[in-house]
Amino acid sequence: MINKLVENIKKTGAPIVVGLDPMLNYIPEHVQKKAFAEFGETLEGAAEAIWQFNKEIVDKTWDLIPAVKPQIAMYEQFGIPGLMAFKKTVDYCKEKGLVVIGDIKRGDIGSTSAAYAVGHLGRVQVGSKSYVPFDEDFATVNPYLGSDGVNPFIKVCQEENKGLFILVKTSNPSSGEFQDQMIDGRPLYELVGEKVAQWGEEHMGNEYSYIGAVVGATYPEMGKILRKIMPKAYILVPGYGAQGGKGKDLVHFFNEDGLGAIVNSSRGIIAAYKQEDYAKYGTENFGEASRAAVEAMVKDIRESVEQR
């Protein structure tokens, strides 16, 4: 699947991923009202509003982008109806030819990790039949439990031609409480990066590994070091826009070929209509505002990478 991701990025010229992380307060009132009129102010109503919101954004941006990244917690909070909206979103995006990165941040050991991997990336056996439950193309994985937690995911990825993004250095302010701790004179995130590179060497696509890394845009100097440690790992870069990352901060996440990184923006795109720069579109045309935000993001990153 890494080959398709790289192909999509080359085709669109847009090394970005749209984070489909819908909170209800991101969803325009007219969308919510329509959903509530049909399903009431219920979990089902919330899930329908989320689905319609996602669909509009995808319809207005799919031709500009290579991938989407739905964050499962935003759906799980609405229970089973929310998970059904998550699945509808995954399926619809794949119908549009987009690569789907399931932002699930799972991390466990043994049979539990294997069950997570099967549920999100693989096939589950039911009697004589097998089914693909969620069927994302990539999943984010927390490596804190070590290889025992990651290997079951790698096994399923090998079987299904899927991929992973391993958390290495995350964009949140307190990430350093653990990730920056020094071990034998080196920060923990560097050691995790080395392990990602090691896992990835055994699972290569045409140009890059199926095993990628998550490195926050808010730590560009660390990204520069990790890029060298993981030359064949695709780096998923959260923290652009709403969390403060800008195109100029991201140049070192990319390799000299202009590839090797894909930058995520969530509310900066899906809630663009709330921003002053895109207020002219109004709430009725929130999808058009998202499209304009995508175009601006692509321009910012492309120009920054070309000028480095």
Automatic annotation (TrEMBL):
Domain called Orotidine 5'-phosphate decarboxylase: residue spans: 15-281
EC number: 4.1.1.23
Catalytic reaction(s) noted: orotidine 5'-phosphate + H(+) = UMP + CO2
GO molecular function, one term: orotidine-5'-phosphate decarboxylase activity
Enzyme class at the top of the EC tree: lyase
One Pfam family matching this protein: OMPdecase
Keyword terms, alphabetized: Decarboxylase, Lyase, Pyrimidine biosynthesis
Recorded metabolic or biological pathway in which this protein acts: Pyrimidine metabolism; UMP biosynthesis via de novo pathway; UMP from orotate: step 2/2
Catalytic residues in the record: K105 (proton donor)
InterPro entries according to UniProt: Aldolase_TIM, OMPdecase_type-2, OMPdeCOase_dom, RibuloseP-bd_barrel
NCBIfam families: pyrF_sub2
Family in the record: Belongs to the OMP decarboxylase family. Type 2 subfamily.
Protein name as annotated: Orotidine 5'-phosphate decarboxylase
Lineage: Bacteria, Bacillati, Bacillota, Clostridia, Lachnospirales
Gene label: pyrF
